[in-house]
Design a protein that fits this description.
single chain; 7-stranded antiparallel β-sheet
Amino acid sequence: MNGRIRLFLSQAVLLMAVTTALASAEHVWSYWAVAAVSVLAGGWRVWRGGPALLGSRVSQVAIVAAFLLLLCDWFWLSTIGVMALAHFMIAVCAVLLLTQQKTSEQGMVFVLLFVLLMVASLISGHFLFGLVLLIYVVVGLPALVRLHLVIEKQRTRRENHRLFGRPWVESYGSGAWGGAPVGRVSVLAGLTSLLVGMLVFIAVPRVGGGVLGRLEGHVAAVSGSDRQSVMDFRRIGPIRTSQQKVFRAQVASEDGRILGPEEVAPYFRSVVFDQYRQRPGPGGGHWEWRSVSREINMPGHTLLTTSEDLGGIIPVLPVAYGVSDVELVTQRYWLEPDLHRYLFALYPPREVSSRDFNRVRRFTDDLTLGIYLPAPRSLRYEVVSIQSVCENLAAVMASWYGQGRRPELLLPDPPLPREAEIRALVAEIDARAGTQGTLDDPVESEQFVVAAQAFLQAPRFRYSLNPPPVGGGDEPIGDFLFGHHQGHCEYFAAALVLLCQYRGIPARIATGFLGRDYNEVGGYYNVTEENAHAWAEVYLPGRDWVRFDPTPASASPDASYRPWLLRVYRYLDYLQFQWSDLVVDYDASSRHALFAAIVDWLQRPAGARSTAWGAVLGFVSELIWWRSELGWRDRVLYWLFAIMVLTMVVLLAYVAAVVTYRLAVRLRRWCARRWAARLSGESAFYARMCRRMAELGVAPQPGQTPAEFAGELACRFPILRPAPELVAAYYAARFGRHVLPAPQRDRMESFLKQLAALSRVQLSAVKQEDSPRSAR
């Protein structure tokens, strides 16, 4: 495979990987198709060695057209600016793959692909981006290194032609794209980049909820009944199902065991409506369900904050703490970024805790929970609920509500147009259930509710996502009971609540989501918009509010999947769940929880040791003697961790020893140079004297030693009598490697300054003046 084909394959793999991540995040695959066509066509051209499919002029026109498409995408289609720019860059890369690329254009393709990778990191919350990043490290880095070598080779050839008229360097490595050393350097650079990136990711958590948020539009499955303060059947209309994820939830027992749908009914509540009222308006107004207690007692909620006494937990139902024999279930929720104002929970919630908020709203009448501001990022929180309300707790809760023995009965206001028919139907159901009377016994109340639920689940009633439209002034529940007999879950729940209320039993509508899609691989519910649901809650004395679901059972959403395909889907969804929780939503609290979990995991073999050194000894002794009851998987992980730590310690010790040795060598050489420089400065006294004497016309004779020359100067020129002392200092510094004392160094400097100020005439005068005296 030559360098040209290898370059094209690198570009094609990176382009398809990045565009796949962008298309999966945006749910728009048109530009992915454009990239795929360009890769196939360009690959066929490169493999056959044919000419470019697009000429220079045509490619320029195509890039201009891509820019015009960018403007259209941005202004006309109202696409997010960064995504419109990403579309433009994909189009440019597709055009360049179909042309005969120059070296500069090849570099431009890699730069555009890198920018597209950055865009994908901002908008993609899918685990597919992790694979794209790995592909970019494995394929992109070697391609960039080889492209750099090609560019350097061309630059060197041009420079050699300019200077020498011929190229001196023919190639780098093996061929134009380098050989094995280039591959090893690329692999080392990729592994280093991944390691550094992981360390930076763990050390520097994310801040805020992301740059772009969610790209896809929000489609409500139940027309937003879980997010509205009223339920209006006119606004609901036909229901559009959507696979848009809302949240994931995991339910566990008190001992941490994961509970499936066969053990706990996954009805996740959000909003409750308790009275059916007619809203005045033109044409007789319209009927809607409201939470009347919240209207009367505005704002209708109590602010709950984190309790330090409970270890950072927000208590929702304080009276439950004083009741024994209460079975609890814990739910962990991961909410997708959305405009949620309500928190989902199984009824009744006892406490809530979260790393993302420290206060919630509690609606006292129905124990629903909410937050003050919409959540622009994912929310993670945990709710502890009571699985079944015992008689003692029900009595305590009733007194805590301020309701006495029984909640207030809220009949429709004003009376329904078909009230007489509804009362007759209630009497008919009452006769079937055999519960005629005042229903003071909770068992008889439950019998009536069960009979009414069976009536609504009869074949005459049909579940439909497209019920007949509700006209102005029409009352939809009466039409449902005595007319068309078709509707969705809100119709069935509202009908059961009305039948109970006319029988004198307090009832209300609860909305939220029903966990139908349970992932056995991860042990959690994957809740989407199409799982939105409504059911009835009926008050039974001694049992509190009890859930009844009159909506006919529908087929499981997984029935159409083959078993092996469903298993693959479960694993992929579990990977996406882990990616979203551990990577996309990684923040400071996640880092704290990660470090705390690692510390707890490491302290298990160490036992209750108070000091760090004792914990290390306990850890090592546990690995050798196996005293604790740990599973074989944990032991294997602990041994791998110990080997990894030992290897890192050895490597760090080796690196520290090498660095210390090299620093010592450098320090010794530096000291030697400084010493040599100091000694050379002191031994330079003789050289400075010789240069000055040569300027004055006096030079040593051939074969004359420095001592002989200094003695001659002292005899001939009395002014130069310090010369022997200077030579003696020279011998001591040059050969004895002694450092001269400061007074002696000052005398030498003074003598050399005096010599520098002496001229030839002065030197001759001194000689002539002293010659008779020396002769005598």
